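chain below, 672 aa
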Amino acid sequence: MPSLVAAEPLKLTLRDQRETSPGSGRHHQRVRGESWLPNETAIIVCDVWDVHHSLNAVRRVEQFAPRLNEVLTKARGLGVTIIHSPSDCMAAYENHPARVRAEKIPVAANLPADVRSWCSRIPAEELAVYPLDQSDGGDDDDPAEHAVWAKKLIAMGRNPGIPWKSQSKLIEIDSERDFISDRGDEVWNVLEQRQIKNVILAGVHTNMCVLGRPFGLRQMVRNGKHVVLMRDMTDTMYNPGRWPYVSHFTGNDLIIAHIERFVCPTITSDQVIGGSPFRFAADKRPHLAIVMAEDEYETSATLPRFAFDYLGKSFHVSFVFGSDSERNSIPGLEVLESADAALFSVRRRVLTNAQMTLVKKFVAAGKPVIGIRTASHAFALRKQDPPAGFVDWPEFDAQVFGGNYHNHYGNKLVATIRREPGAKDNPILAGSRRDSFATGGSLYKTSPLAKGADVLLWGKVDGEEREPVAWTFRRSDGGRSFYTSLGHIDDFDNPEFLGLLLNGIHWAVGNEPSADVTIASASDFRRHWSQIKVPAPWESAAPALSQYDGVGWYRCVLRISQSWLGDGFEVELAESSDERQAWFNGRPLKLSGGAARVPRDWVELNDANLLVVRVSNKSGPGGLSKSPRIRSSRGAMELAGKWQFRIGDDEQWRMMPLPARYGAPTDIIFEP
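prediction:
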């Protein structure tokens, strides 16, 4: 039993994300402080193996493992329980005192029914769109390096696919106090026997093992433990060559955001050992905070989409949204304290003194500021004083952007935008293809600008003087600012504006321009697996497929319980003139009349099973226009909902490189 002696509590700051309002799809980042008693707290170290099939994954573990070891040493000394869980490696610890200790813990009276099983999803994730494609296993190695690494593993006597045999030697195991187990029931027994209420998960890999293992985040949440992820002591398996084609580190950010929204809060290692949060050496991305609080131009929708499409390779992006219920509240502005640059799209808001201090402190530090459209009057009211308890900053435009917004021309007057001749070599205009284009919204009156402002674009409506539309400004504090009065919702359909905004952000932080403003659509069915609705002909399920005849591949994941399975089950596809083939966990199904039997021994019980259907359509509506079904002696279920789909024809698509538990997203899972 743990000591009952009072210990100094762990002072932690938990971060999570909650929707600004139900169904908005926007999330406020929230932080709250909590005090955890060490003797009621455990840290589970997940799969920090000695080696891995991905060389880059090994390199990243070797970077953060020494710091993780510091965390464990400090926490252990405070009385925190440490559980080492290197999956598939128990043979290496057969007689280790920490392994024997875990095996000897009595079975808990409240042992959860499925705690020995992988957990692919919890109910909160059913509404989520999974943020990346990990179905290739997430290996981000250089192919040539990977081939050399695989040969080295073979020379070491290791299976290059699953080469791990123990936990990394960079993580110390205390023989007298720690526990070793990769079994969910044993870990649960330890937690219950030691009266553990709070659990911290650290280790790899975030999107697979840390989330899904029997001792992982989902199981802890599902079974009532107060659990957090240590977000800087983890790493995601993600290949930037797969959707959404962002950097590896942005892929990690996307998974952490998914966890904060749908699974549990997160903390950082510095909250235990001091200093600053850990950052990988190769992660050179500037941290850009995008602050949105305006109702007229819908930038709370257009800017996140822009960031997702264009910024994920080069930036770590945080989003800050205005409150949906309180006009002068912008929750999460505290992110400015850690941001390297900020983009403002705010219109006539005033802030509490504390929040305005955050903005002013950020600017005074000489950090880059980008503004679009209404940022010129972000914190200025129209000839009125702020309400009690709030402050304005009417000089924000002049002081931060060198601007002079004082009205706009009529909404029906279309302005023509032209480049400043002297700015043709400015890197912000790199990739500009047209000498002129039309604005999406009204032309702002912004002249004259302050000294030090360099105009890039001018706008003009018939019969009026031209007005500056985009410019740079070197502030008195030494910081760089870029501003454009463009930013109407229609401007986000204009490649000229997209390139301008993208390069303006790059210029502000000192990066080279990015002339390429092409994007990969989230529904690029030729290039990657994309989500599609079933049942529906593919022509009506996605506009990009409206004229498509050819071969299409569908896949979903089935999680089958023993109680439902019986002696096997049938997959039923409705009769169709299309040619169809199907596979279950990579094995071909023998379809007869659209149905096929799946033997019991093909099924991974209480785990993820992959169902793939190939459809060949030569004319007329194609695809799964009626719901597939699965049926056992215990019941039936329609597989209506979200599937993944792609067009083309590659027999390798019948399976994933790794088992479905690792490669499948949470949003295509069906559980009868």
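The chain has a mean pLDDT of 95. The chain has 15 helices and 32 strands.
thats it, cya
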